[in-house]
Amino acid sequence: MKKIRRLVTGGFVMATAAIVFYSCQSNVKSAEKEEKKEPVVTAVLLQADSAAIPNDKYGEAVRYGQELMYNTAYYIGPEGINGKYLGNKMNCSNCHQQGGTKPFSFNLMLSHEHYPQYRAREGHVLTLAERVNNCVTRPHNGRPLPLDSKEMVAFLSYFRWINSFVPKDKPSKGVKNLEVTLPDVAASPERGEKLYVQHCARCHGAEGEGQLRNDKVTYTYPPLWGQYGYQPGSSMHRVIKQAQWLKANMPYDKATWDKPFLSDAEAMDIAAFVNDDSRHHRPDVKNFDYPHMEEKAIDYDKGPFADTFSTAQHKYGPYLPVIDYWKSKGWKPSY
Ligand code: HEC
Ligand code: HEC
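That is the input. Now the predicted structure with heme C docked in place:
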């Protein structure tokens, strides 16, 4: 835009200048509008203040829920002291960082008010408790917590409590994922492999195996694939979804949501490599998803599909033709 301004002040043929100036003006206006619409960074301010957890029975449940988010494997992992539910030793906070309060890290601060909700993957309305169990069963490859268990009640109490930090009169930022610009070409596991070696292997291991903590209860660096990684049915297994999260959060010691380390294309290529099932084994999935195939997320990689695009194109892109196809049918494609 600076360029255009210079041209204008430099004195163009009047008519052209007027047009250029006009479009410049309208850009300025919409940029200003954007800025005005830009929500206050509530999620950053919302860092749930643990000192504010009430000292009563509800507060006890909230505290246990918070503990469960960070030390999931210790309490309900394969050798959990309060029950054996998870199939691996990851913690909820490995993906929902800072107990689900970190912006752009699959933030959970609005979840309490967003459920019950229709979920296309299951094809029916889910309660928040059922949604929690989706993560217990898929990324954690476990068996569902009983809905009336102390643990489920604690998770739900905690979600209600973090939700109380969300201002009701302002939009929140950081709850939705960071956007990535979808490239015109397919994401490439081959390019992703090189980037993985460069940027990820030092923590997550050459074989994506992660690194167990000395006490072996959980991980210092969680695994990305293999029998202890997330299942293929997890949202993390979708290339766009993972790329959005990587852009804001990985490499752990280098990326922040407002200063990502990976470019959008790099994040897509790495997510393609991590999620390439022809290279990397994962636990088996037992359930079938998306009973209504036209509701599938476009980067979900299990057919049958309600469109004519291949499995590979759904998985790696290019996604823009898929998006255009669904838009032309009057559907809002999800990813
Ligand atoms: C391997 C990563 C991973 C792990 C581990 C994980 N989740 Fe998730 N979770 C996700 C992803 C991805 C989503 C979907 C986010 C999206 O659609 O943007 C999600 C969604 C959710 C949601 C729904 C949020 C909403 O508002 O719709 C809840 C609740 C949730 N997870 C709870 C948990 C709990 C509790 C645990 C631990 C028992 C857990 N998750 C472990 C990746 C993970
Ligand atoms: C400096 C060490 C480090 C580097 C480098 C790093 N990570 Fe991570 N990664 C972590 C830690 C620690 C966590 C858990 C975060 C938490 O608990 O707050 C994590 C979590 C994850 C998760 C979610 C949990 C899981 O295991 O599924 C994914 C996916 C992931 N990293 C991918 C990557 C990718 C891809 C790269 C390279 C671009 C990368 N990481 C680079 C340390 C690292």
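The two ends are 32 Å apart (CA to CA).
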